[in-house]
Amino acid sequence: MKAITFAGFRDVEFETVEDPRIEAPTDAIVEVAVAGICGSDLHPYHEREEGLDFGTVMGHEFVGRVAEVGADVTRVKVGDVVYCPFTTNCGECHYCSVGLTSRCTRGQLFGWVGMGEGLHGGQADGVRVPLADTTLARVGDNLTHEQALMLGDVAATGYFCAEQADIKPDGIYAVIGCGPVGIMAVRAARHLGAEMVYAIDSVSERLEMAGRAGAVPINYESEDPVLALHEAADGRGADGVMEAVGSFGSARSAIELVRPGGVVSVVGVHTETEFAFSPAEAYDKNLTYKVGRCPARAYMQRLAPFVESGDLVVDDVISHRVPLADGADAYRLFDEKRDNCTKVVLKP
Ligand SMILES: [Zn+2]
Ligand SMILES: [Zn+2]
């Protein structure tokens, strides 16, 4: 089959790889219809995350049709259109049972193979899905492939970010980073009742999108967000800050924006080894800091009815749809934010 594979620093290739096959009786093979390129795919691409084997099939966002199932797979059937979170889920460990599915004890991240161990990703004609019965979910008739694709990561992550920020209707909130996840955090905060959400970025097209999603855009290159938020909140700062970037600078902004007693909710993938603020700063702010990978398996089906009813728009962040064969160019386009590229969907 064909796939987009990791080839080194800022290098992915469209190449022929071995077809995925059933390796355990709980596996399924999914024929991919659409696959997303995610901001977090750029971490190994830039080698900010190290240890990814050359030849690893990239990507953890995919929707497709079940082509084959192992002998012990009972819920998922051949022919089902399915969506998938970015990690596998057993459905029965402590973490799965409390809804923290992203920390499943048998969770494996799609698109990560290191020292020969791990799981290939979904930017390919097909993908092997372990623990298929509890990892995959059937896509309802009223959801498009692209909506389901967004629910498997971007929309779930944005919603999780907003829920962690403890949204109240009369609170004042800030979203740092207006990429697809940030836009979804704005939408989720609005859906949860927030009336004042400020969205911070420097890319004007992204800020316009945030505006359409219901936020007040702030371009940090021309306006000081800390000043703006403090002014809006009688000098206090934001009740909740949603950080959807994952850098030292964005973490630093979050701590400066939040009011004493407020919440900083972080879903941007961090790869640094030190916090951007000190324990003393946290103490002096009575800070609540919530961070980590979204339990997408627990969120995607819960959010599906909101998407089906049109209350939560998730697919308008997709800016580019390209054949899988053009995936390497699409990575460059996305990485360099050329051509207003916010989200790429690959079509095998
Ligand atoms: Zn993703
Ligand atoms: Zn589990």
Specify Rg, calculated over alpha carbons: 20 Å
The low-pLDDT segments are: none
How many discrete domains? 2
Per DSSP, what share of the residues sits in E-state strands of 2 or more residues? 25-35%
- For this structure, what is the CATH homologous superfamily of the largest domain? Medium-chain alcohol dehydrogenases, catalytic domain
User: How is the quaternary structure best described?
Assistant: single chain
Q: How does the major sheet shape up?
A: 7 strands, mixed
CATH topology of the largest domain: Quinone Oxidoreductase, Chain A, domain 1
Strand tally is 17
What pattern of helices and strands is seen along the backbone?
EEEHEEHEEEHEHHEHEHEHEHEHEHEHE
Number of helices: 12
Task: Report the CATH C-level class of the largest domain.
Answer: Alpha Beta
How would you describe this structure in keywords?
single chain, 348 residues, alpha/beta, Quinone Oxidoreductase, Chain A, domain 1, Rossmann fold, six-stranded parallel sheet, globular, binds zinc ion
Question: How would you portray this structure in words?
Answer:
There is one protein chain. By secondary structure, this protein is an alpha/beta fold. The protein folds into two domains: 205 residues, Medium-chain alcohol dehydrogenases, catalytic domain (Quinone Oxidoreductase, Chain A, domain 1, Alpha-Beta Complex), CATH 3.90.180.10; 135 residues, 3-Layer(aba) Sandwich (Rossmann fold). It is built from twelve helices and 17 strands. Strands 3, 4, 5, 8, 9, 16 and 17 form a seven-stranded mixed β-sheet that branches. Strands 12-11-10-13-14-15 form a six-stranded parallel β-sheet, with helices on both faces. Strands 1-2 form a two-stranded antiparallel ribbon. Strand 13, helix 9 and strand 14 form a beta-alpha-beta unit. The model has no long low-confidence stretch (mean pLDDT 96). Bound molecules: zinc ion (2 copies). One zinc ion binds next to helix 2.
